[in-house]
Amino acid sequence: MSYFLGIDGGGTGCRAAIADGSGRIIGEGASGPANISTDVKTACANILAAARAALEQAGRGHVDELTAVLGLAGANVTAAALSLQSMLPFRRTRIVTDAVTAATGALGADDGIVAAMGTGSVFAVQIGSEMRQYGGRGFLLGDEGSGAVLGRALLSEALRAEDGFVPMSPLLQAVLDELGGIEGVISFGLRARPAEFAIFAPRIVAGGDPAAERLFDSAVAEIRAMIDTLQAGRDLPVVFLGGLGAHYAHRLQGLWPIRAPKGSGLDGALHLARQEV
Amino acid sequence: MSYFLGIDGGGTGCRAAIADGSGRIIGEGASGPANISTDVKTACANILAAARAALEQAGRGHVDELTAVLGLAGANVTAAALSLQSMLPFRRTRIVTDAVTAATGALGADDGIVAAMGTGSVFAVQIGSEMRQYGGRGFLLGDEGSGAVLGRALLSEALRAEDGFVPMSPLLQAVLDELGGIEGVISFGLRARPAEFAIFAPRIVAGGDPAAERLFDSAVAEIRAMIDTLQAGRDLPVVFLGGLGAHYAHRLQGLWPIRAPKGSGLDGALHLARQEV
């Protein structure tokens, strides 16, 4: 009997699901953080704990019988992925980024485009059984339209408004007041991680502030152009994921078919695991 | 008899000049680095060494007779400026940023706008005896049109070109090849300081590459809009400083009177020192 393990692991937690040969989920488990670029040993322990909990719920199967696909934050760091691979006891193990399993879960077996718009941003195109990732590339040089990049743009705009280069708005003034004026904004910028810039994103996409609307309009235009490029004249369905996904979907409706995700990243990991045999 | 001391100090060295009551320079000196936010004790020692060398050349005056204005990198860090102030033996001491002395030197007593376009960027407007600084704000949130920001934009564009979002160009391909492809560009971006991003600026402003021209056109339009805002309907002369200054001056000629700088940052420091009494 074949059993399949799907893992979806990130900076906050790790989820596991076991499926039988028919694809039916027979056990699930959860544990703590599993970002392998941060701490591979802790990630490994939490992956095993989640897998064992799922096996226990299933009441059958053993770790060395599992065909496993793990979608993990930090899996783009090749050394960390190789190190984890050597530590895992599964019969067969494939490690991919959590972006790959999220996109696979969102599309299932269908052709389509996934736009994951969270703290960062990344795109994927699936045609047939081929999936390719685009964009991402991080806070400083890429992550177009992401929450962190929108937050940074808001702080820049607040500084420009304080100098009179662009009109002041209620949100820009609020940000200046909250962070302690120009000096406060600059020192926040020097120490903040991307997730801290992204804290401002909900206030940007909420609408109602002229500066926020200008910034979000510009991001929406950029993401539209990127998806048009990925469509390459086709009319593939587009699935938006992430905390800002619904806001982009709302603004871009009517351009292409926009679909809800078929399943989660955990579903995507199980889907890929069943393709392994 | 009154003597005046001007100091122009930055990360690479410190220059000093002594002038008599008529404004004539009677002695000059130089020494090592004087960035007070990096190392205030070394900066203080180098400032005193340069001042003593200038006094020696002048053959008259003593440190405790000097009215001094110091234009120093890092002087925007208030704690460092106050610490240095307490360590200096001059009769009267005023510490300002090197951007202020550079702008004062460039304009002398004239009304005008200074656009300093180097690794970073900063603007100043002088009307009557009032000078105000605008922009700057650093690599992450400001420094519009600067060499470091242009270099970062080039690396972003190279990543987008590699994904097919924008057309590849010879310069973008060269940058990808030199830095080791997508992974190399991303890891360069994560470790590079602003001055390292600025290394790419001369190739961007040189012209001849379609991607570089697009990026520089966009920066020129941004700087034009910022200077138009600072003009506020006036027709003030504009002085461009810094390594990229001549490139912006060339592209923006005919819009406002563009002038060569009247003098250096050291001239600016002496000019301000004579205004102190």
From TrEMBL, chains A, B:
Keyword field contains Disulfide bond: no
Keywords: Kinase, Transferase
Domain ATPase BadF/BadG/BcrA/BcrD type as annotated: residue spans: 5-243
SUPFAM superfamilies noted in UniProt: Actin-like ATPase domain
GO molecular-function term, one example from the UniProt record: kinase activity
Stored CDD domains: ASKHA_NBD_GspK-like
Pfam families (UniProt xref): BcrAD_BadFG (PF01869)
Name of this chain's protein: N-acetylglucosamine kinase
Lineage: Bacteria, Pseudomonadati, Pseudomonadota, Alphaproteobacteria, Rhodobacterales
